[in-house]
Amino acid sequence: MLSAVSIGLASATLLLLATAMGLVLGWANRAFHVEIDPRVARVHDALPGANCGGCGYVGCGEYAEAVVQEGAAVTLCAPGGPSVAQRLAEILGVAVEPTWPYRAVVHCGATREQRKGQTEYRGEPTCTAANLVADVQACVYGCLGLGDCVVSCDYDAIHIVDGVARVDYTNCTGCGACVDACPRGIISRIPFKAERVLVVACANQDFGADVRAVCAVGCVGCTACTKLSSLLAMDDHHLPVVDYEHYDPKTADFTKAIEKCPMESLLWVGKPTPEDVEATEDEELPERVDPTFDTTVDRAQWWG
User: Fold this and answer.
1) How many CA atoms lie within 13 A of 299 on its CB side?
2) How many Cβ atoms from other residues are within 10 Å of residue 270's Cβ?
3) FRET partner for 118 with CA separation of 20 to 30 A, picked from 57, 71, 79, 156?
């Protein structure tokens, strides 16, 4: 009998506690309710869901909130491109301002053979680790070529070719992951106002003689290019920079500047033009490719 009474009291107590907690939670839900603009969910659904952070926000969710609640630009999603920007503009009822896609560029063009004073590196095969080693390569500004940028890219848009990072512009979305991954800061994002744009493929901040001592194609800061194009100017680090803000691909002419450069530091990057395709259409490819069974370890080369 006593046991039944104890069970009944316990049950009644639990029921009262559950009822009280339900009332408290109901009150809290009304008291602390935050109204969410339904457009946030629509914007989030319109985004590609890459969560790359290239827009400057932590993931697509935060960017969606910023677009709706803070008035962030609808053109910041690099993987989504113009189509996503147009969709976001329709959701918000705004006009899409003229913009250009941003793509990654590597400010180093020196291959292994073009570097001087190269030393063998046998430490952890990452650029981040190698960058901490003194004298891993003579040029302290050049690409380390160990592929941190390759690992960071979710779009298979950057690869190490002859010891230097090369961007595949057929895949690059401009997310900026490789920019953040490079410990030497030689990768940047620039507006591509045309399929191909000019870049300064060097980041060496030393003077001419010192640059020549470590690289066969490094910029020596001669200023010759800046005298032949108003879109090129020297910065505080003895390097020419391209004025992409005023860069008009229809009128920009860098022909003389490129021809005058004694070190071949000015390069065109981007998708090949029809002229480039036509120039290589007669090249013959091998009739067959024999398979090999070596592993990535067999093919590994340790370079700084």
Assistant:
1) 6
2) 18
3) 156
252-to-193, 255, 257, 282 alpha-carbon distances in Å: 11, 9, 11, 30
Which residues touch 75 (CB under 8 Å, ≥6 apart)? 85, 96, 97, 99
Q: What is the pLDDT of residues 224-251, one digit of tens each?
A: 999 999 999 999 888 999 999 899 988 9
Choice between 290 and 52, residue whose per-residue pLDDT is larger: 52
CATH number of 102-278, picked from 3.20.20.190, 1.10.10.10, 3.40.50.150, 3.30.70.20: 3.30.70.20
pLDDT in tens, 90-102: 998 888 877 788 8
Sequence-distant (6+) residues with CB within 8 A of 260 are 224, 225, 228
Q: HSE, CB side, 13 Å, CA atoms: give it for residue 289.
A: 4
Q: What is the pTM of this model?
A: 0.70
DSSP run (H or E) holding 129: helix 127-130
Q: Which token pair is 253?
A: 């002419």
